[in-house]
Automatic annotation (TrEMBL):
Location in the cell: Cell membrane
Role description: Joins adenosylcobinamide-GDP and alpha-ribazole to generate adenosylcobalamin (Ado-cobalamin). Also synthesizes adenosylcobalamin 5'-phosphate from adenosylcobinamide-GDP and alpha-ribazole 5'-phosphate.
Gene Ontology biological-process entries: cobalamin biosynthetic process
Name listed for the protein in its UniProt record: Adenosylcobinamide-GDP ribazoletransferase
Species annotation: Ruminiclostridium cellobioparum subsp. termitidis CT1112
Annotated transmembrane regions: 34-59, 65-88, 135-160, 180-208
Membrane topology annotation: Multi-pass membrane protein
One cellular component (GO) term of this entry: plasma membrane
HAMAP family per record: CobS
EC numbers: 2.7.8.26
GO MF terms, alphabetically ordered: adenosylcobinamide-GDP ribazoletransferase activity; cobalamin 5'-phosphate synthase activity
Gene name linked to the record: cobS
Entry keyword annotation includes Transmembrane helix: yes
Alphabetical list of PANTHER family matching this protein: ADENOSYLCOBINAMIDE-GDP RIBAZOLETRANSFERASE
Pathway(s) served: Cofactor biosynthesis; adenosylcobalamin biosynthesis; adenosylcobalamin from cob(II)yrinate a,c-diamide: step 7/7
Length: 249
């Protein structure tokens, strides 16, 4: 029952899919629930794939690619894109650690945030339009899973960067090696079910990319935050799509 509760909790937190179930949860449920992050990504991908399949009967693939990304933002509420923007505003401000963390918490959007979000969405869109038509729907299905594997890895290998409370503290404090191992098992099983060597190669990249990315960000602020986990998710998803474009064009 705990596992099911945490799965539902993750779906409620990371998506806007209407799941009207009241759940009593504590901080550990959020952190330990990250084990289901790849599966949550697969659920998001399934919604996007069904929508894309239907839209292909009406629009050319370029327009469908754009609509898929708009739907992705709607389903996720732009949660991780917000983290991407905040992270880039802070990390690339060239300020001391304490000031970087203050900037990341500021609700105002700076130039670095706009450039980061625009660049990632541009790369996502271009990659989707150039991927071989045979793989188009499968890549849409898998891309959110690849991204959310990044949040899992990032939380499991990091300490919390702030002294007080924050949105990411529960995830980082309670997501450990056990959650990382089981989460990557879920990720691997879903990957293997694609039965495609090229996709296996591409899906190997996100966990490694997440490790390197979160280590870089952590070196700037002495750990990770919720914004950094969001940034790693979006960057991971983008890396997955760019790699898919390079291999499957």
């Amino acid at each position: 029952m705990k596992a099911l509760k945490r799965l539902v909790l993750m779906l409620q937190f990371f998506t806007r899919i209407p799941i009207n179930i009241q759940i009593t949860a504590n901080s550990s449920d959020f952190g330990k629930g990250l084990v289901f992050a790849p599966f949550v990504g697969l659920v998001i991908g399934a919604v996007l794939t069904i929508a894309a399949y239907g839209l292909l009967f009406i629009f050319p693939r370029v327009m469908v690619s754009a609509l898929v990304l708009v739907l992705y933002i709607a389903i996720t509420g732009g949660l991780h894109l917000d983290g991407l923007g905040d992270t880039f505003d802070g990390i690339f401000s060239n300020r001391p650690k304490e000031r970087i963390l203050e900037i990341m918490r500021d609700s105002r959007v700076g130039t670095n945030a706009v450039l980061a979000v625009a660049s990632v969405l541009l790369l996502d869109f271009t990659a989707l339009t150039q991927i071989n038509e045979e793989y188009f729907l499968r890549i849409i299905l898998l891309m959110p899973m690849a991204g959310r594997a990044g949040s899992l890895v990032g939380a499991a290998v990091s300490g919390y960067a702030r002294l007080g409370e924050g949105l990411g503290k529960s995830f980082i404090d309670f997501c450990g090696k056990k959650e990382l191992i089981w989460g990557l098992i879920i990720y691997s099983v879903i990957s293997l079910l694609t039965f495609d060597l090229k996709l296996w190669i591409i899906l190997l990249l996100p966990p490694l990319a997440a490790l390197l990315t979160v280590k870089y960000f952590s070196s700037k602020v002495g750990g990770a935050t919720g914004d950094i986990l969001g940034a790693v998710c979006e960057l991971n998803q983008c890396i997955f799509l760019v790699a898919a474009c390079g291999i499957l064009f």
